[in-house]
Amino acid sequence: MKRIPLQGKYIQGILLFLLLVFAFAFPRIMADKPYWLYVALQSFFWAMMAASWALLAGYAGQFSFAHVAFMGIAAYTSGIAGERLGWSPVSGIILGTVMAGFVGFLVGYLCLRLRSTYLALFTIAFSEIVRLIINAEHQLTGGPMGLYMEPLLETTSYVPTYYIMLAALIVTLLSMYAIANSRFGLFFRAIREDEEAAAAMGVHVVRYKIAAFVITAMIAGTAGALDHHIIGFIAPNELMIPRMSLIIAMAVIGGTESLISASIGAILIHFLMEWLQAIPVSEAMMAKLQANAATVQQFGLTLGDGVIQTNAWRMAFFGLMLMLTLRFWRNGLIQPLLEKIGRQGIAEETVAKRKLPQEENENTEVQP
Amino acid sequence: MVNITSQYLLNLLLNGLLIGLIYGLMALGLTLIFSVLGIVSFAHGEFYMIGGYVVYYLLQAFADLEPMLAILAAGAVTFIIGVIFEILFLQPMGKGDIERPGEYAILLTFGLAFFLQHIMIGIVGPFPTKVSRFYDFIEMDAGWLRMNKATVWFFDMPFSSSRLIATGIAVFLTALMIWFMSKTWTGRGLQAVSQDRQAASVVGINPLRMNTLAFGLGTMLAGMSGAALVTVFAWVPWIGMAASGKAFVIIVLGGMGSMPGALLGGVVLGIVESLGAGLYPDPSKALAYKDAFGLLVFALVLLIKPTGFFGRKL
Amino acid sequence: MKLEIKNVSKSFGGMQALNGVSITIDKPEIVGLIGPNGAGKTTLTNVIDGVHNPTRGEVWLNDERIDTFPPYQIARRGLGRTFQVTRAFRRMTVLENMMVPAMAINPTVSKKEVLEKSWDILRFLTVEHLANEYGRGLSGGQQKLLELARLLMLDPDFVILDEPFAGVHPKLQETIYGYIYKVRQEGKAIILISHDMDSIFTLSERLIVLNFGEIIADGHPDQVKEDPAVIEAYLGADEEE
């Protein structure tokens, strides 16, 4: 991330403020299209997942694939507590978060000595084991058929839950920013850059690595438990690796080293996914396609009412985007954009402004 | 509760061995990629998956096609895709143009897996397909050895003919690979690069070209394993994930970068899975947990001795 | 201040890297540590710094036994080291690089204090203009200076410099000399590992020679260079004048 001059920071601030205003006004704007309201609140869930993963991977350098597992553990804990023990959703969410934190601690501890590829492999294995256990122990978890989760609010409108998710996203982002700008963030990044050098410089690597896992696991857990109490259902297929890949795609395309970029990336991608699900086509085009219906079907597309349903292709598209972004725009697509906006200000503050007054007799040369 | 006779155990063991040899072939490809390019390809299973589908589509389109040709075609297709991917996305890494290459390789191959999987879901749809066995065996009965079209009984232990054929193919290809790596110039060049890139380049071997070749060969081996196994398992576009998982377990068990390790690890995994599934007390959950055994062993090995049997450190 | 290496041995599998090494440093001095490649200099540094635990023997710092401590704890007790290959934090600015050790050893220090101290040190090394540059944007020599600057933020009693002059041009070398003298003036002890004989003999007040993991000489540089064992093992047949 490049340095942003003060002017630029104002512009960024204004932009974010406008985004917030838009986000708050969104339900009014979409009053007659509750579907998009639902899409939006779901996108906030993904934003929390992507941003927390960005904190773990982009900031602390731990490329873990266990993130969906943490989310799932929290959601299932909450669901089971609700269904088998009669707990309320809120208590369930809190329990789920604690559980996720505990598991995050465990994984962080086990992963201490594992470097990049081994870390990836281990967390994948862990994630799969969790999913398989959930699948197998159907008496407890409902197995492959899934688990009913008590809805957070008894309401037919998405508006209140929209605001809840938005609030959750804002609180989460603010907390993560606070962490990133604190000594935690500094040490995370030092560990990311060079673990051994960081240790030689006095950083308590063990503590901060585990902290990174615990914090991000808890955020993923809260997001997951909360979101699934809104959806009302959870199934083990949500813990499958492709879900993790999607989160990674969102964070990478947004920008792994910037929490807000990752969030925006997630929101945009989720909306795009929904929009791409059914692409409207003109009547002329539709006629042509229907004439060749068999071929269209062979390509895995289906023709709906004035739309082409893209099914799996939109996922493939984002897979491709992930690869291309990595190859050509390593910092993501959103992050450089935000930085560019930030640099619209005057030339960078000069070093001179930041210098402290020099002492007169300070001797800076030492004769051998 | 199944009667655990020694014959039943032996059957499980041998079945595990059969499957294990095929896993070994797939893992061989992955280990080759690792030893030359230094990366673990998270998309390896997807090439296995594609290989199976190539055979499926060819045999559907041309009912009389000799299955061995279909398998060769699967190998060719996966080789080509691998080479194209390597040139477009991995070459810059080999040239040193990519920052934090380790991270890059992980995320990139993950993205490739995601991409390939969903392209196939788009093309095939989320429905399983089955390819019927390549050849019918002759009917015969010699007491200790009995055969019919689909099954072979060896001392009264049943083995599916599809598995036997698949294993035969795998063993043949493995032997071919071993010959290739040790007796041909190109193969020895690959070995040289895997041991010491700089030294290899100094004697005139082009490491970048070797990268491309190694990746292509690796994906080809995966593809052909899939082509061999497509008659044994029901094929779905996400079968690659389980395959990748097994390949990882194997190379970690056997040691990254070690070819004998890959083969040994494959056999061990095959046997562990077979015994685990066959002996787990609760049959209703046994199948669900079958994959978990390998994963558990895997996780433990990663924590305790990540270099496995024969491997070198990552 | 006291650093005691007591009869330390270290083996890796079958390979004996250090064998019965004993060194005591209990006053500010510049100690040169030399020896042929593979003599064990970096291994010794790693053992002192907690990267490895000694197979036998003990390491004591200021009357506290540290050989089982991890590196970050040793850093907090006032022993810092650099690495042969410079390891600056690339995606962090120079100032951030400096802040890491300062904040790591002192949980309650204020950012203002840390920044002030950072500026002082950067100015001393004449690199204050790079304060907001990212580590990856620095040249090799600048990165080396950053590593040295960063080290001082630990406020260490002991400093181990591993090949500080490798690939360094003369002007930069002067700056590093100045750094070493200043640090020595401030009452710290410096262990200087280098193959650059000129620098070693210019700077060292004491010279230790390591060969095959054992100390074969430990004394004043002028004496050591006359020592026949040293000459035979390391300096070769030619005598230094």
Describe this structure in words.
The complex is a heterotrimer of chains A (368), B (314) and C (241). Chain A is built from 17 helices and five strands. Chain A has 368 residues and is mainly alpha-helical. Chain A has a three-stranded antiparallel beta sheet. In chain A, strands 1-2 form a two-stranded antiparallel ribbon. The radius of gyration of chain A is 23 Å and the shape is globular. The model of chain A is unreliable at 345-368 (pLDDT under 50). Chain B has helices at residues 6-37, 44-61, 67-94, 101-124, 161-183, 185-195, 197-202, 207-229, 239-254, 259-279, 283-304; strands at 140-141, 145-147, 151-154, 157-160. In chain B, a hairpin with a 3-residue loop joins strand 1 (140-141) and strand 2 (145-147). The model of chain B has no long low-confidence stretch (mean pLDDT 86). Chain C has a single domain (3-235), classed as P-loop containing nucleotide triphosphate hydrolases (Rossmann fold, 3-Layer(aba) Sandwich), CATH 3.40.50.300. In chain C, the strands form two sheets. In chain C, strands 6-7-8-3-9-10 form a six-stranded mixed beta sheet, sandwiched between helices. In chain C, strands 2-1-4-5 form a four-stranded antiparallel beta sheet, with helices on one face. Chains A and B meet through helix 5, helix 11 and helix 15 of A and helix 3, helix 4, helix 9 and helix 11 of B.
The tally of domains of chain C stands at: 1
Structural class of chain C: alpha/beta
- Chain pair with largest interface: A-B, 45 and 48 residues
Backbone shape of chain C: globular
Record the strand order, biggest sheet of chain C: 6-7-8-3-9-10
The CATH homologous superfamily of chain C: P-loop containing nucleotide triphosphate hydrolases
At a glance:
Chain B is mainly alpha-helical and 314 residues long.
